[in-house]
Design a protein that fits this description.
Layout: E1 5-9, H1 13-25, E2 29-33, H2 36-45, E3 50-54, H3 62-72, E4 78-83, H4 87-95, E5 100-104, H5 108-121, E6 131-134, E7 137-140, E8 145-148, E9 153-155, H6 158-169, H7 177-185, H8 195-207, E10 218-221, E11 225-228
Parallel strand pairs: 1-2, 1-3, 3-4, 4-5
Antiparallel strand pairs: 6-7, 7-8, 8-9, 10-11
Helix pairs in contact: 2-3, 6-8
Amino acid sequence: MNVRRILVVEDDSAIRRGIVDALTFAGYETLQAGNGTEGQRLALASTFDLLLLDVVLPGTGGFEILKAVRTARPTLPVILLTARGEEADRVNGLRLGADDYVVKPFSVRELLARVEAVLRRSPERPGVVEHFDFPGGSADLARREVRFTDGTRAELSEREADLLRYLATNSGRAVSRDEILQRLWRLDPKHVETRTIDMHIANLRAKLRDHAGEPRVVLTVRGKGYMLGTA
């Protein structure tokens, strides 16, 4: 199971260190930035699951970062870190698309509770699918196994099972090659040849007996990526 990664953008080094330590102890991976310019760079170029964003930052401001993130990744969970009494900041942040806010000073327990709650309800964290039926058989992703109606079986590699699970979990929408590289491979698409995804899709189709010329299970959506077909 993938460990959740959280980007912390906070200019106060003591607060940032405390947040990072608390998140690390709770089992999260972290990225961090101490100013808005670096924070925006990481927010737009890195792979992570939630953004903890201070509103008042040197360089690029928190609201500007929030707008940029909402344009690039509309469903990414964002929690704002705001000063006590700054109600206007909280209202403005929520209007710009923040999922929640935490008022400084805050307790570690409150912060972690809000992080967990936002991740649970985020559309980027849909319920994980471990079993589904497809024309001619069914997939048991927990066992990394495909069973066909004729009684035969095929074993999936860990990468193939992860890929099929992600497509099944995101059923109903096309998943781009870049998204697969970022969310599953944890790689920057700018530095990786995306044909590696096409090769894994081809191997997966072969194991699913999914005809490459006219697939029914793993569909190609032209210009968008791949999508799981309905049984």
